[in-house]
TrEMBL record, chains A, B, C, D:
<dbReference type="GO" id="GO:0009073">
    <property type="term" value="P:aromatic amino acid family biosynthetic process"/>
</dbReference>
<keyword id="KW-0456">Lyase</keyword>
<feature type="binding site">
    <location>
        <position position="48"/>
    </location>
    <ligand>
        <name>NADP(+)</name>
    </ligand>
</feature>
<keyword id="KW-0288">FMN</keyword>
<feature type="binding site">
    <location>
        <begin position="301"/>
        <end position="305"/>
    </location>
    <ligand>
        <name>FMN</name>
    </ligand>
</feature>
<feature type="binding site">
    <location>
        <position position="328"/>
    </location>
    <ligand>
        <name>FMN</name>
    </ligand>
</feature>
<keyword id="KW-0521">NADP</keyword>
<feature type="region of interest" description="Disordered">
    <location>
        <begin position="47"/>
        <end position="68"/>
    </location>
</feature>
<protein>
    <recommendedName>
        <fullName>Chorismate synthase</fullName>
        <ecNumber>4.2.3.5</ecNumber>
    </recommendedName>
</protein>
<keyword id="KW-0285">Flavoprotein</keyword>
<comment type="similarity">
    <text>Belongs to the chorismate synthase family.</text>
</comment>
<dbReference type="InterPro" id="IPR020541">
    <property type="entry name" value="Chorismate_synthase_CS"/>
</dbReference>
<dbReference type="Pfam" id="PF01264">
    <property type="entry name" value="Chorismate_synt"/>
</dbReference>
<keyword id="KW-0057">Aromatic amino acid biosynthesis</keyword>
<dbReference type="GO" id="GO:0005829">
    <property type="term" value="C:cytosol"/>
</dbReference>
<dbReference type="GO" id="GO:0010181">
    <property type="term" value="F:FMN binding"/>
</dbReference>
<feature type="region of interest" description="Disordered">
    <location>
        <begin position="361"/>
        <end position="383"/>
    </location>
</feature>
Amino acid sequence: MNGNRFGRLFQVTTFGESHGEAMGCTVSGCPAGLELSEEDIQADLDRRKPGQSMITTSRGEPDDVSIKSGIQDGYTTGTPIGMVIQNKDARSGKYEPFITAPRPSHGDFTYSAKFGTRNWGGGGRSSARETVNWVAAGAIAKKLLEQEGIELKAHVNQIGDIEAPEVSFEEIKAHSEENDVRCAHPETAEQMQELIAQYQEEGDSIGGSIYFEAQGVPVGLGAPRFDSLSARLGQAMMAVPATTAFEFGLGREAREWTGKERNDDWEFDSDGNPTPVENDHGGIQGGISSGEPIYGEVTLHAPTSIPKSQQTADWETGELKEEQVIGRHDPVLPPRGVPVVEAMLALTLVDFMLLSGRINPDRVDDQPGEYDTDYHPSNPNNE
Amino acid sequence: MNGNRFGRLFQVTTFGESHGEAMGCTVSGCPAGLELSEEDIQADLDRRKPGQSMITTSRGEPDDVSIKSGIQDGYTTGTPIGMVIQNKDARSGKYEPFITAPRPSHGDFTYSAKFGTRNWGGGGRSSARETVNWVAAGAIAKKLLEQEGIELKAHVNQIGDIEAPEVSFEEIKAHSEENDVRCAHPETAEQMQELIAQYQEEGDSIGGSIYFEAQGVPVGLGAPRFDSLSARLGQAMMAVPATTAFEFGLGREAREWTGKERNDDWEFDSDGNPTPVENDHGGIQGGISSGEPIYGEVTLHAPTSIPKSQQTADWETGELKEEQVIGRHDPVLPPRGVPVVEAMLALTLVDFMLLSGRINPDRVDDQPGEYDTDYHPSNPNNE
Amino acid sequence: MNGNRFGRLFQVTTFGESHGEAMGCTVSGCPAGLELSEEDIQADLDRRKPGQSMITTSRGEPDDVSIKSGIQDGYTTGTPIGMVIQNKDARSGKYEPFITAPRPSHGDFTYSAKFGTRNWGGGGRSSARETVNWVAAGAIAKKLLEQEGIELKAHVNQIGDIEAPEVSFEEIKAHSEENDVRCAHPETAEQMQELIAQYQEEGDSIGGSIYFEAQGVPVGLGAPRFDSLSARLGQAMMAVPATTAFEFGLGREAREWTGKERNDDWEFDSDGNPTPVENDHGGIQGGISSGEPIYGEVTLHAPTSIPKSQQTADWETGELKEEQVIGRHDPVLPPRGVPVVEAMLALTLVDFMLLSGRINPDRVDDQPGEYDTDYHPSNPNNE
Amino acid sequence: MNGNRFGRLFQVTTFGESHGEAMGCTVSGCPAGLELSEEDIQADLDRRKPGQSMITTSRGEPDDVSIKSGIQDGYTTGTPIGMVIQNKDARSGKYEPFITAPRPSHGDFTYSAKFGTRNWGGGGRSSARETVNWVAAGAIAKKLLEQEGIELKAHVNQIGDIEAPEVSFEEIKAHSEENDVRCAHPETAEQMQELIAQYQEEGDSIGGSIYFEAQGVPVGLGAPRFDSLSARLGQAMMAVPATTAFEFGLGREAREWTGKERNDDWEFDSDGNPTPVENDHGGIQGGISSGEPIYGEVTLHAPTSIPKSQQTADWETGELKEEQVIGRHDPVLPPRGVPVVEAMLALTLVDFMLLSGRINPDRVDDQPGEYDTDYHPSNPNNE
């Protein structure tokens, strides 16, 4: 089992190495009848694409996605959607020094120890380049969720010790894409940018975090216990490269709150249904969605590839040596991580929408009826 | 869950439609260090390739496989192996009459009813063209099994009412590829060929069966009950297009045998280990491999695409009409099914070899040590 | 992975050995609101229970099921249903001679070789006693299917060389439980009974087969390719103890039919939907249900435990010896196998009903509304 | 899929409600030959048992585990281990007021909304009582890990605003069980106890956190990407009731560290293998274990059941009302959560030990050879 699959009913399977020929992603379980084009996917790919600003690697990858199957006349057919993204600008030469001398805190050593070998160009399979596949799959999930009235968005809420004040979901939607840092609070964004530039000059890098939120999630998503919504979000987010912490609702802070403070009383909504007065619970109660917005944070450590000199141990020569990771690298990860976190959030939610029967697994409702018969899954009596 | 995945530890994920842009297959769980090239895979692809003889469709597909990831310096890296096979010779025009008028006993109607739409060119996702992916994955499984001393082979043992006499495993290896029918018994092969030609002239097609055998399978493969070796072989073989029956050991005939007749007494082998005197049990006892050869049969019904006129019902016009499936089709399936059955047998066995710990999931032993360290999985004490 | 799980969404997990303290089965994925009692389950357990007639083992097991969770006020709650069935009449003494001297064609040797040990009393985990769990889970699946208008039934259609003529689904429902052999054709049942008695006297046993059929299955069940309805039925049925062959539709006979003969033309049903003129395809086309009855056969070899003397090899003493399996055994398996085959058919179908969205995974519709709110999964807008 | 399963190869399946008849857990995939008794499991169950001190609920549950299968002569047989724990001291009466008036921040509302009903006694399936199953399964995992030289331990490192100073693994092993709070730093433990008592008097509750650490974990556990060690730990820990945050290594703090600060240089260990100078990476690099200790923290919010009056909305009467959760409840969760977190850590690690081939899936090495033959899985050539 080598970790390239995500999802129970909305299944994503990936392949590819940073400097390999291509990245690839197969999405199974997407219902038929969803209007989908390469453009829909490209939009999100462009948000995580390298070379989009001063604070991202200068590697020049167009990241053009090519859909190989699962689409007909602009709509999904319910069968697997195969996607391939060619790698264009790979320059492995710079990595030769590290073949047997692992870069500090990278996957170089662990991959070689596990497999006895590794694809070393650009970090190979351990490179964050893999997330191009996740974003491609996530874009499809987002389209399905939109049809169900579910909106989700993320933004960068902290870089180093610079933290953004709380901003509303509306503000995130309005401003997170307005600056290179992807922070929805313009003033903070500027300070973050300066801080990043400073570390970049020093040949160092810095950590940060991403805030995510989903609205319009119906009550009842998530299975009790091991497959709770929080457990599956935990897996999804902790899989994001460089993530060291996942929090939802009050997160880490909950340890200092009392029951009375944190508990959310019940009142009635306009439909006369029980609804919580506050949302300190973060939209999940007993592992199941409560109908309130789901929000949380993901912490990404500083990029491990830095120009500053570091010590490594060459297992071939048996010598210690100083090395500098030249290559082309990001000084900070959250800005490009925003679409990745959104993708993992979307993939987790769409899976539960299918698992709870809220999205029909065979076909969406607004599909083109061209070849339709009366045997609609939601019409078991064939009426 | 839309059925494009096979295997628990040796995982195959596929995509592609008969007349789509490309077929694709991602293999996860293949240990690192296996010497592997596109040629290794091509050899088997050429055996199932169309246009290889008079009794196969004339569709001209080179079926060249392109490996996109998971290989370095000619060896697997333990990470996903992405493969793509372009579709070259697709002519969908001929299928237009069937878009709303399903071909008899095809998947046309069921796919459209389930998904509300379907990729209709050449049968789309329901086409046996999908098996090109299975054969590609199976070729990798075969290489792994060979290293463990496991050999497997299949041949066509019946076409229509012409049945081949029992032949030995050695004969199958020696003769099954010598004729277009892939029957290891030359005289029978000739009769089969004549019979096929006759039906072909009549614009009809005919059914048949494939015999498979695996030797060198160690004792202990298969998990009790639902994941028994026979249960998983059952799933694997019944997934082969057009299969209507799966049998192992005595198969259907076992219903007429008594316990005393069928039971295999025990004796000792040269190592002093218990070994069955006969192999009426087909190499599986209590769902677990006994160390004896595993053998069985798969029945494939006649191709459903025939030039002979048949009646269909057009759900758009509401009219009944006579139609002839022109296209380019095989008059019989087993000859091209042989490598497919071998592939499913190999995929099932290699999965159990990994599940039983007989093949190391991280890396094979004879791998290139170039980047090796002392942390070999089979060396937990790091000695 | 040790094979005690079945189902993707309707999940069955089992434990227990023939002479252990108890058998147990946990069913997850059964929607809330299904009226269910121990009596519903007991009815089927009594059909497979030992000691019910002259032609079954005399072992005296009441097989009383005890539901430990998942039910409240007579309805399922949507959470796991834990069931335990105590073993009462275990007499392991008779098995001591076989601890190191495997019974011919049993799982004794393969289990010991795989695990290095085994629970030897009564065959331990390899005993068909395990199927008591399957029948318990199957009874729940049947109740769910009945609510969807799906009926299924099996009967014994062959014992040794005595084969029953074709009988209708109505006849099977009417007569299969009228005789000890569970053959829906009374005259044939008598001959079968005589044949069985004859082998029983000789201290031998005999094989046979079971015919199964399901009606009311909607169009569209089954996922393309590896998870086709036929592939999953193949796994389910090949898991049934002593099964050596699985066939559906024409089964093995399909090898002798031409395309023109086997293909089923299309006409229109009273609703104006396409429907096949015949059902030679067995209710499955392209791996997906066609709406026609699903039918097939399962072959069970003769019981391996026979009083007749057989040779075994004792791996402790290194000696060959003659042994007789005294114990208490069935002379033939199909009569008690009928409810087991029905259970596996029901478990396979209910799983696909959930996977296709036809059965709501969270709750059935006719549930008691006592604690209901308006947030019904099938009511995403909470109207 | 209703969330009662954990693990890929070491599979845990659970059932049971807080006030139901019994809790149950089936463990599949435990190799044969592990010495195991009910006492081994009871030891950990007693650590999470209610009524063990002033700061735990007074509910009187002996939590005696009964093993129903999978063990013979004191050793595992490689087949499923069925365990049942009876519920003895259930008093549901106190919960009647909440049937249609959900307790604030409990699972009452979400369960009822999802399933249309729920087992309301004591929280039913959503109760933390479920973790008795996890601890039982975890105890088996721990025994397997110990044989491989892997040790793991947890302790309470924060309650409210009282945080314990950093303590060594040795100190945790020595002192965490010495006080009711399970904090390995005695002085802090006292302060925590006072704080808890204070909130308890006020009829309120308080949050806290658990620190966990595993030593002796070999290099190479974890699959790249979605199944990385950190991703699977994320799922495991976020499934722990009341968890709102999971962190490993520097966790949330990593957002303020630079790459140079956080990166761990390489040196050589005494065997000449590369080893990190520090362990800021928390034992996981590129999602794979580095051989360094794995450590992290889990935050548990305050218990939601408090005597203090809170507002709820009764969906039957449509009235708002004040309610007090009388029942018998814990004022703080971490003390009893320690064995639960250890269990989830053990279950995650043992699964990867099996997945990486480090633990033989069929049988451990030091098993009793009584029924052994020479066909050892680790001896494919049967030598």
